[in-house]
Design a protein that fits this description.
With 262 residues, this protein is mainly α. The chain is built from 10 helices and no strands.
Length: 262
C-alpha cells in the first residue's frame, strides 16, 4: 500500500500540473468552454464537501468541526463584502472583462496581485490535501479531486489574463509554475504541525469544508446563471453533474484500490 506522505506529494504534484493546463489549450477553446469548466469545479467542490471532506472532519474533530467550518465560511463572506470581488470570481479573470480592459498591459498591477493571491490560495490547497490524507485515503482522494477540479478553471483564467497583459506563453507558465510550488509549503506545514498539535487534521478539514462550500455555492454557482444560451446551459449542467460524479466515483475507486480505514 502506498504510504500517506507519498500520496500527499503525488496529489500536490497533480495539483501543480493542473495549474499549468492553460498553456496547453488554445485561447479560443478556453473562451468557449470556461463556463463548463467552472460548473465542473462547482460540482466537484460541493460533492467533495458533502460526501467526504466534512463528514471526515466531523468524525475527526467532533462537533467543533461545525464551528471551524462556520469560521472559514464567515471569514470569506466578510472578505467578499469589504474587499469586493476577489480571487475566486472567475468572471473577473477574463481578459475581456470591463474591469481589466483599461488596466491590462506590461506594467499592469493586476499581475503581482494575482500571483500573490494565487500563492495564498495554493498554500491553503496544499494544507487541505495533506490534512485530508492524514485523516483517511478516501478523504484525501476526494479533497485532491476537488482541489484539482477547481484549479483547472481558476488557473486557466489566470493564464489567459497574464497573456492578455502581453506576457509570453513561456513566462506566464513559468510564473504560474513557481506559484504552484507554494502548495508544497502548505502540505509540509501540516505534515510537521500534525505531529505537534493534536487534532490539527480535523480542524483543517473543517476549515477547508467551509472554504470549499463558500467557493462552490457563493462564487461559482451564481456565475453560471449569467449570460447563458441554451447550449451553454446544457454544457454547464453537464459539467456540474460530471463534477459530482467524479467525486463519487473517486470515493468508490479509492475504497477498492487504496483501502479505507472505515
Amino acid at each position: 500500500m502506498i504510504s500517506t506522505p507519498l500520496l500527499i506529494w503525488l496529489a500536490v504534484l497533480a495539483d501543480g500540473l493542473a495549474g499549468l493546463a492553460g498553456g496547453l489549450l488554445s485561447e479560443r477553446w478556453l473562451s468557449r468552454h470556461l463556463s463548463a469548466l467552472v460548473a465542473f469545479a462547482a460540482g466537484a467542490l460541493l460533492g467533495a464537501v458533502f460526501l467526504d471532506i466534512f463528514p471526515e472532519a466531523v468524525e475527526s474533530a467532533g462537533p467543533a468541526a461545525f464551528r471551524w467550518a462556520l469560521v472559514s465560511f464567515l471569514a470569506l463572506t466578510l472578505v467578499g463584502w469589504f474587499l469586493g470581488p476577489h480571487h475566486h470570481d472567475h468572471s473577473h479573470h477574463k481578459p475581456d472583462h470591463p474591469h481589466h480592459q483599461e488596466h491590462l498591459g506590461p506594467s499592469s498591477p493586476v499581475v503581482p496581485s494575482l500571483l500573490a493571491a494565487d500563492a495564498l490560495h495554493n498554500i491553503g490547497d496544499g494544507a487541505a490535501v495533506a490534512a485530508a490524507f492524514l485523516v483517511s485515503p478516501q478523504a484525501g482522494v476526494a479533497t485532491a479531486v476537488a482541489v484539482i477540479a477547481h484549479e483547472l478553471p481558476q488557473e486557466v483564467g489566470d493564464y489567459a489574463l497574464l497573456r492578455a497583459t502581453g506576457m509570453s506563453r513561456a513566462r506566464a507558465l513559468l510564473l504560474l509554475g513557481g506559484v504552484q510550488l507554494t502548495a508544497v509549503a502548505g502540505a509540509g506545514a501540516v505534515l510537521l504541525g500534525s505531529q505537534a498539535v493534536r487534532g490539527l487534521e480535523g480542524i483543517i478539514l473543517a476549515l477547508a469544508s467551509g472554504t470549499f462550500l463558500y467557493i462552490g455555492a457563493t462564487d461559482l454557482l451564481p456565475e453560471l446563471r449569467h449570460g447563458s444560451t441554451p447550449k451553454e446551459a446544457r454544457g454547464r449542467l453537464l459539467g456540474f453533474l460530471l463534477g459530482l460524479a467524479l467525486v463519487a466515483t473517486a470515493g468508490v475507486v479509492e475504497r477498492h484500490v487504496l483501502g479505507s480505514h472505515h
